[in-house]
Predict the structure of ABC transporter permease.
Amino acid sequence: MSTGELPPTSGAGGAASAPLHEPASIHGDDGGAAGADHSGEGVWRRAWRTLRRNPVAIAGFVIVAAFVIVAVLAPLIAPYGPHELPGRTDVRPTYIPGPSAEYWLGVDRYGGDVFSKLIWGARASLLVGVVSTLFGLTGGMLIGLLAGWFGRWVDFAAMRLVDLMLSVPSLLLAVSIAAVAGQSQMAVIVAIGVVQVPIFARLLRGSMLAQRGQDYVLAASALGLTRRSVTMSHVLPNSVGPVIVQATLTLATAVIEAAALSFLGLGGGEPSTAEWGRMLTAAQQELAVAPRLAILPGLCIAITALGFTLVGESLREALDPRNRTRR
């Protein structure tokens, strides 16, 4: 039986009385699937229990937790501030000091402590990734909700807008928006957020259309509930699961795209700015002298994106009904 689906009935009286026994599965935190689970265990609770036994999910959570802790506690962890250049007097045209007791990972061409800049770069990446994803999630859910709620010409117009946005490569669209909006961190956030809008819009719209055909929705309508009540109280809560999973996966993409835009010089700030993408840009000319200046921020970007990807994929598998039936 599908999510929140009512048991079949043989008469009109049965169809009218069955929804009265469904509130726990329709309004509950389990997204309506508890009615199909004889143990009474909610979908999200069961997913969390599955994730705790999944070593891939655990590895992803550890990476993400470490990234968040470093970003939040950057002022306490970093030996120097994001704009400080303590080693500028030690840098020579053909020499960049390497790791030492004072500078654990050495300094860069501008004299900045690489270890400190990597830590402050984590904070910048977390800010851009989370805010841009929330921006895209909000805009996408709004468009998807309108398309799934009203249907007809509203759905047609919304989906044609989504198709138009998806027809342009995401990175090219982000670069264009960031270039027009100006070279700043806010421009990067807006650019990445706009690129994510059609992804969330199409996903929520498709999920809502699938839920609208379920028996519990037809039963709620038969009881006299308005379209608004059915959509907001029943259809939408049961449709957000895939969107939440996609938001987790999109965080990984947002971190990579933020670094790419900063690498292209669209993130604003000085060349010595403590941001992973800017650090890669500044390291291009120093590959022969100090390759670590490019390797270290590149590893940070890759590991962080990997962590979010592992969490998102594990969450998707844990919420997949086909996987739940095999457990």
Q: What stands out?
A: Confidence is low (pLDDT under 50) at residues 1-40. Residues 91 and 177 are 37 Å apart (CA to CA). The two ends are 16 Å apart (CA to CA). The longest helix spans residues 114-150.
